[in-house]
Amino acid sequence: MKVQHKLTLVSSLVFSLVFTVSSALIYFNFTKSAENIFFEELARKASLTAMFYLEEDEMSSKEYKRIEKRFLTATANQEIRLYDKAGNIHFGEADADSNITIKILKTIRDRESYSFKIDSLYYYAIYYRDNQGSFSVIIKANNPTLNAQENEFLKILLTALLVGIIVIVALSYTLSRIAYQPIRNIIEQVKALDVTRDRKQLTYPQTRDELEDLFKEFNAMLDKSYQNIQIQKNFISHASHELKTPLAAIVGDLEVLLNKERSVAEYKSVSRDVLHDAERLEKILKNLLILADLEKQTPEMRSGQRIDEILWEVLDQLQSEYPDTQTNLALMLPEGRTDVLTFTCNPTQLYIALYNLIENAAKFSDRKPIDITLELAGERLQMIIADKGIGISQNDLAHIFEPFYRGGNVSRTRGNGLGMTISSKILENHGIDLQIRSTVGAGITVRILF
């Protein structure tokens, strides 16, 4: 069942329940009040009846005539019976009433007055003591007007309930359609969405309510999905290209080698090329394994690791690989604040991250010096890696952390586009902030905040 129909059903059921309970309370209160009024009238008639039958010998003729006139007028169309203590009818209707039992007569004597209703018949009784004896004075009456009023009132309430249910169903259905119209529009838009092709956003009215918040969050999710899909596409495209290049080179070298007999020098030359391409392929696969490992598990941390010691290991390794590139290290910490150099980390992973970042600087610095600074930023250690190389455009900078993505101006420099991805993931897992700024032709500045 659709939410719109559920809302209509629930609101209708709630209205029906509330109206039914209210109508029942009103109806029973009305009937009870009307019956009480009728019983009060019967009570007055019962007193008048007792005086008419039992007080004649104690009144003057004039007083009795007045009582008789009132009695004959008030008790028309009503049955009157006076029972003595033995339960025999002493005055009034001679035939017995099956509804008046010995138990009821006893109740009348015990309570002095007693009223009850059986079907549509109303009874009111008093226990009257006189010099002639004590009698149970019982008046039996039928009130067709009251019964008709009750039936008519019940019909009005049932009609109002039926009309009210019809109105509330129609109103709830209309309001729910209006309320859920934006959702239906969104559903139609979602059905037509294809985030694998174009970046699309849902359009919705500015209602400033929870629905607008929901649609905003959904649009944000769509944007993230689109970005992730594009990253996956780029990953597959670049990965296939990076893996295919060394494989194609290996296959090509071996095909040329086997085409005819070669000299020993040619065999050695081709073997070196094959070995170089195989090492390149091995490095790509190794980086992919590192990246996959970073995605699936939390690194094992060790406390008390010195950032400067890890940095010196990186610089020693880079000196052997890039002997022509000068690296300047400046320790700009205040005196006595070497405590910020101590960090809880996975030293192997942090070594890889710093190595990749500084190697990038060396690789693209065009043999110009690299400046590395360790300084205090607030109460945190900040490392700045700055080169004066070829730089990177702002468009490429937006994709710099995507796997296998390489800038448009680095095609002649060897690499596979995984170093920055691995470094950013390692730093993210360690809670380390990374910022990169660059200007084409003026170099790159990397800020690492521990």
UniProtKB/TrEMBL annotation:
UniProt GO MF annotations: protein histidine kinase activity
Pfam families in the cross-refs: HATPase_c, HisKA
Family annotation (InterPro entries): HATPase_C_sf (IPR036890), HATPase_dom (IPR003594), His_kinase_dom (IPR005467), HisK_dim/P_dom (IPR003661), HisK_dim/P_sf (IPR036097), Sig_transdc_His_kin-like_C (IPR004358), TCS_sensor_his_kinase (IPR050428)
Catalytic activity, reaction form: ATP + protein L-histidine = ADP + protein N-phospho-L-histidine
The entry's keywords: Kinase, Membrane, Phosphoprotein, Transferase, Transmembrane, Transmembrane helix
Subcellular location per the Swiss-Prot or TrEMBL entry: Membrane
Domain of life: Bacteria
Top-tier EC class: transferase
Residue stretches spanning the membrane: 153-175
Histidine kinase domain residues: 238-450
Entry annotated with the keyword 4Fe-4S: no
CDD domains: HATPase (cd00075), HisKA (cd00082)
EC code(s) of this entry: 2.7.13.3
SUPFAM superfamilies: ATPase domain of HSP90 chaperone/DNA topoisomerase II/histidine kinase, Homodimeric domain of signal transducing histidine kinase
Protein name: histidine kinase
Species assigned in the record: Dyadobacter linearis
Gene responsible for this protein: arlS_1
